[in-house]
Design a protein that fits this description.
The chain is mostly helical. It contains 5 helices and 2 strands.
Length: 128
């Protein structure tokens, strides 16, 4: 996030790191107090409330797999993933609020490159 905020790679400009870190520290950050699986409706409602009350313009969801839980079968997971991503897209459009969705790939051997199938065995959300 700091790299995006600074609009450049700070590891290549270490003399500017403190300045950008101080500016980033001044940003108002709000955190949802959710932990574990949540309904998408609850998450979207909370995000809409934050847009209204705090006038936020960026939400980070970390992470999709944890939010979805492990209850669904693999075929249901793809449909659930599509539904959730669609709900986040609609929220972003309707509220003019940017959404960053963190998706962690499954663990792979160190010598194996990550593939689109490393995300739930599906490439559905990787093409966004």
């Amino acid at each position: 996030m700091l790299t995006q905020f600074a609009m450049g790679r700070l590891e290549e400009q270490l003399d500017k790191y403190d300045e950008w870190a101080d500016r980033f520290e001044d940003l108002p950050l709000y955190f949802m107090t959710f932990h574990g699986q949540q309904s998408i409706r609850t998450v979207i409602d909370t995000m809409q409330h934050a847009v209204y009350v705090y006038d936020i313009c960026h939400v980070v969801i970390d992470n999709l797999q944890f939010m979805m839980g492990h209850e669904q079968l693999s075929t249901d997971r793809i449909a659930a993933q599509d539904y959730i991503v669609g709900a986040f897209r609609k929220f972003a459009t309707d509220s003019s609020c940017h959404v960053t969705l963190v998706i962690h790939p499954r663990k792979e051997d160190d010598d194996k490159e990550l593939q689109t199938a490393s995300i739930f065995g599906s490439a559905k959300v990787s093409g966004l």
